[in-house]
Amino acid sequence: MKILLTGANGYIGMRLLPELLENGHEIICAVRDKTRLPLDPETIKKVTVFEVDFAEEVNTESFPKDIDAAYYLIHSMSGSDNNFDKIEARAAENFNKYMAVTSVKQVIYLSGIVNEEELSKHLSSRKKVEDILYKGNYHLTVLRAGIVVGSGSSSFEIIRDLCEKLPIMVAPKWLKTKIQPIAIRDVIAFLYGVLDNEKCFDQSFDIGGPDVLTYKEMLLKYSKIRGLKLWIISVPVMSPRLSSYWLYFVTSTSYKLAVNLVDSMKMEVVARDNKLQEILNIQPISYEEAIKKAFLKIEQNLVISSWKDSLVAGRISNLKEYIQVPKYGCLKDRKVLQIDNPEKVLDNIWAIGGTRGWYYGNSLWKIRGFMDKIVGGVGLRRGRTHPNQIYTGDVLDFWRVLYADRESKRLLLFAEMKLPGEAWLEFCINDKNELIQTATFRPKGLWGRLYWYLMLPFHYFIFGGMIKNITKKEVLV
C-alpha cells in the first residue's frame, strides 16, 4: 500500500515508520521541515519526504494524489496554552481538503480517551479533531489512548523525573485520578493492525493496557521497579497553577505543557471496552513490563524518538528562521585551535550535552539552567535523546540543533533559554584541521548588551575551557 504518514518526525510517527517499512509499504512522510526527519541514509532511500504544514493555506497542486491510506498524527498541545485547539481544528479541516484530491481509502487517527462529560481543553480538542475528520471523504478509524508509556514518551519521562529526583513528594489530589496506561509497542501494534481492516472502518476504539491505576500507583510501581524509596503525601488543596509550577520545576516539561497536562490529569481516562483487542487478537503488556522494556531501550541506546525533540517543547517553531547566523549587530566569541585528529574531535562534538556535559564548567551550566527554569525557560533537564548521535531539530539541554552534518564537520545550535536577545553556538572543522568555535549573540536593546558584557568573564573561562577539552584525548568517547 502507498501510505501518507503525517507527523512522521514526531514521537509516534518515528516508531510507526519502521513497522510500515518492514511490512513492505510505500511511505510518504509528510513533515513541516524535511531537515527535521532524523532518518539514517538507508531508511531515507526507502521513503518519499513531502513538506507540508496543514495549519497553513492549502495548496494541493503538488500534493501526492495516489495514496491508499493515511495516518493522522498531528498534535499541537504544548505549542500554546491559549490557542492550540484552534490550530488543531484548522489543521484537521485543511487535511480533509488535501484528502479530497487523493484516492485515499482509509485514514487512521490517534486520539485520546474521552469518557468524561466535562473534558479538559486537551481532550476536547482531540474530540473536535475526530469530529472534523469524520466529515472527510474516506473511512476513518480512530484509536483513543490514555497515557503512552515508552522510552522517550512525555508520560514516561515525567514519571522518571519525579521518581528519580524526589524521594518525598507533596502532591495534589489528582494523583488519585484513575488512568489506563498503554505501552508504546502496543500502540504501534494497534495502529498497524487496523490498517486496511474493514472491520475497523468508520469506528472509534479505546485502547489501553491491562492495568487501571491511579497516578500515585504508577509512581510507586515505577519506584519499586527501579529500587527507589518513595513517599507520597497527598494534599487536598493545590491550585492548578501551583500544580503546574510544581510539575514544571521538578520535571523537564515546559510550563505551557505542564498547564495542559495538569488540566487533563483531573480527568479519568479508562478504556470503555477492549473489543479492538479481540478483533486484532492483541494482548497488551502490563504497565510494569512497559517500564522494564523502556529501560532496556535506554540502556542499549535504542531510543528512536523523544517528545523533548518536538519543536513545541521549546522556544522556536521554525528552524529555518534561525539557520542563518546573523553577521551584523551581533557580539561574538570566536576561538580557533589546531587539531591532530579531526574525526575524534568530531566524536566529542557529537557527544556534547546531556550526561556528557559541556566539557568545562558543568556546575556553571547547571546554575544557568536552574536560573532559566526560575524565569520560565526550558532549563537544562531536557538532556539529549542519543548519547552520540545528533540530528537537525534535536534538543541538547537548553539548545536546539539547527544544523548537524558530520560530512561537512559542522554543528550549529540555537539557545532556547530565556535571554535578552538571541544566541547561537557553532562548532566546525575546516580544511586546515582547525576547530573553530563561535558563540554569537544578537542583543535586544541596551539590556541585551549589558547582559553580554556582564557575562564576558564567564565566557572567557567557559568557552576557552570548552574548546580545549573538546580536543583532549582523555575526554574522547
TrEMBL record:
Annotated ranges, domain NAD(P)-binding: 7-125
Keywords from the UniProt entry: Membrane, Transmembrane, Transmembrane helix
Keyword Membrane belongs to the record: yes
SUPFAM superfamilies reported in the protein's UniProt record: NAD(P)-binding Rossmann-fold domains
UniProt key word Cell membrane: no
Chain segments annotated as transmembrane: 450-467
A GO MF label: protein-containing complex binding
Domain of life: Bacteria
One Pfam family this sequence matches: NAD_binding_10
PANTHER family referenced in this protein's UniProt entry, alphabetically: NADH DEHYDROGENASE [UBIQUINONE] 1 ALPHA SUBCOMPLEX SUBUNIT 9, MITOCHONDRIAL, NADH-UBIQUINONE OXIDOREDUCTASE 39 KDA SUBUNIT-RELATED
Name of the protein in its database record: Epimerase
